[in-house]
Amino acid sequence: MDNKSIKKLEADLWESADLLRAGSKLTSNQYCMPVLGLLFLRYAYSRFKMVEEEILKNRPMRNGRKMPVEARDFVAKSALYLPEMAQYSWLVNLPENVASLVLTNVAGQTMGSLGEIVNNAMELVEQQSEQLTGVLPKSYTDFSDDLLGELLRIFNNNGLDEVGGDVIGRIYEYFLNKFAKNIASDDGVFFTPKSLVKMIVNILEPAGGVLLDPACGSGGMFVQTGDFVNEAGLQANSRMTFYGQEKVAYNAQLCLMNMAVHGLTGVIESGDQANSFYYDAHNLEGCCNYVMANPPFNVDKVKAESVANAGRLPFGMPKENKSKEIGNANYLWISYFYAYLNETGRAGFVMASSATDSQGGDKDIREKLVKTGHVDVMVSVGNNFFYTKSLPCSLWFFDKGKADELKNKVLFIDARNYYTVVDRTLNEWSEWQLKNINAIVWLYRGETDKYKALLEEYKTVLKEMIIEAGEEPLNAVMDNVFIDGFEIANTHLKKLREGAKKVAESCDKKEKKQLQALWDEKILSVEEIVEVVKEARWLYSKFGESEYKDILGLCKIADIETIESKGWSLTPGVYVGVAPAEDDGVDFAERMVEIHKELLDLQAESNKLMDVISRNMKEMGYELGKI
Question: What are the residue boundaries of the N6 adenine-specific DNA methyltransferase N-terminal domain, all occurrences included (predicted)?
Fold first, then answer.
């Protein structure tokens, strides 16, 4: 299944599931966990069938028949064994009147509704996995049998059987993303936007060892790390050991399901004993190869005495107030992340922008931190990267195993003006923007081979996209992708849009819809090419074939002496300066003509509506102005 098909499947499944919720009396909070539980069950079944097929290939025969599969066969393949009553195909094919089957659950009680049967299926799955014990949702009796049956049918989609391509894992994350936007009461705390997580993972480049996320939410750091390691041709479960702490048990459940759907195992502690301010739940101080986190920002009223007793404060305690509390816990988190690292460990985390130059006791801790030489990269992130907060943030990176020539240096990147607009309230980094920012880090580290490989990737991908688009004029893009490729592609896109407009104006209504769909598809494929060429030009115009240089308004390598002269600030903007305004590729005069025409069209439409309203009022015996 290609990327476009998966995106369509994601959107279709979400639309269907969300329509069902809208027609029920359930809130997003009540709906979230059970729906994700069904996605998990669907994943478990797809993997079960795939592994069962592998086992049966070499199964010994007895009395002319293959011996049945057993639970222990699946354990050897790192897969869940599913008893019949936990298999998705069995559940989805149950008759409407399930009470007539007189089925009993694991406790021996008779089940009279589909909700009870699905609850029982979750119990049966938990019996097969110690990691999932007590984790899976069992609130399906809150659903009517009709609603639950329809949900089961929605996820009984053949497209979800491509487990090898991790289709269900992607859809699970897509649903998490959607629920994060909808569940306002939870403030989206269980979900870190994917582009931020990917940036952290890409810059840390995990390859093996212990990974801790002490504020793990729904487990995005683990999942992206797993993807990164697997894509490098390694096995994440054998190379990485995942540990998490999450105070909110609900979020920890989401995390464990998320990991299971992605084929990962880990140890996640939840509840009061997993409050990272007061407990090192896994006793990992000084033991981690990697620490990744998106902790809650600006937490107050943290008990100073309990913090002191918990340790993990290599730079001392942040200042406490008169109430013997830490008024802002940002530097507690920063201290913990550093303390967890082993002698060559790397950390990457999201933090409130204010922490990069906060004063008082924070500044003292920051000075000590910078003097270690282990602050590696600092990235400023613009507004609207979170679903429920519009404030900017920053990404911090530590590296205790820095090359000697970098020990005295920090790379500052100001990416506040570099992003893709998703909608009015949300921004993100596209896949190519993630690669481009990562490329700056490679050049800072002297890894020019990775940078050059990215340039080749641009060429390869664009060639494939142009062939697939079948637009012959775009072949000229490949003559010089990084110099004039963008102008060539953008000019062709304008011509396509003009062509589509002329066709729409000249054809009759019967043909219009069909022709419009064909032109829209053409335009979309060229728009995607334009975006990729635009990012290729952006990167090459700054660093050429592979030479790092400080770019005004974007990046700067500063030494510790320079950072000291700036009052130990770690704010990228302090160092990189302000970039000159860039040409965004939009023809101002052309755009103004378009806007003027749009206004005239709207005005004409408004006049027509007023005429209609006036006639209707007259027919009712009223006249405007005489009421």
Answer: 9-153
Among 553, 541, 569, which residue's Cα sits nearest to residue 413?
A: 553
Q: Which residue has the higher pLDDT, 463 or 23?
A: 463
Contact 398, 410 (CB under 8 A): no
Whether 385 contacts 393, CB under 8 Å: yes
pLDDT tens digits, residue range 452-492? 999 999 999 999 999 999 999 999 999 999 999 999 999 99
Helix (H, G, I), strand (E, B) or coil at 62: strand
Q: Helices marked H in 58-113 — which ranges?
A: 71-75, 88-92
> What pTM was computed for the model?
0.82
Number of other residues whose CB lies within 10 A of the CB of residue 350: 25
**Residue-range domains of the chain with CATH:** 3-169 (1.20.1260.30), 187-446 (3.40.50.150), 452-547 (no CATH), 588-627 (no CATH)
Q: Which two tokens stand for residue 619?
A: 């027919």
Q: Rounded distance, CA 423 to CA 607, Å?
A: 30
| CA 27 centroid distance within chain | 23
Q: How far apart are CA 527 and CA 200, in angstroms?
A: 28
* Cα radius of gyration rounded to whole Å, the chain: 28
